[in-house]
Amino acid sequence: xxxxxxxxxxxxxRVCVVCLxxxxxxxxxxxxLTTDLGRAGLADRVRxxxxxxxxxxxxxxxxxRAAATLRKYGYPTGHAAxxxxxxxxxxxxxxxxxxxxNLADLLRLAPDPETEARVRLFRSFAPDAGPNPEVPDPYYxxxxxxxxxxxxxxxxxxxxxxxxxxxxxxx
Length: 171
Ligand code: 4NP
Known about the structure:
The protein is of the alpha/beta class. The protein has helices at residues 25-39, 64-72, 100-109, 113-116, 143-169; strands at 13-19, 46-52, 94-97, 119-121.
């Protein structure tokens, strides 16, 4: 499925990455995707942020295991968790869910079919993700789960950056 067109072609393309708590997966995806886009020369053309569907951790730093994993691989870690608000849809071109629960929650909040078409699974941009392209919740697992998540996110971010380069490069 091709990327949705920007709502405002004169501004940057706006991507929001969404998980449950906004302290593990989506902040990791925000940092990794932002880094990838910068390397691809798209820093000014795409704006990335993140949020959780839940509100438990609003204002909190990233999970210490998520931050340690990012740091180990050279990514930044500054973060303050936020909850996704339905009025953000109007200001995002693409909203990317980490798992199918997040996807269902977002689709329930989406006001119309045009907005629903902008909601996708983040890992669907990884060429090797298979038929169930989720990034599983690492919160209740061990440290190795965070490496698995980082690897999944890196592959998906690379695929998405490539698609964004094609979409925006032709403008
Ligand atoms: P995340 O992980 O959705 O990747 O940020 C979680 C963080 C916190 C909780 C669940 C998942 N929690 O239940 O508090």
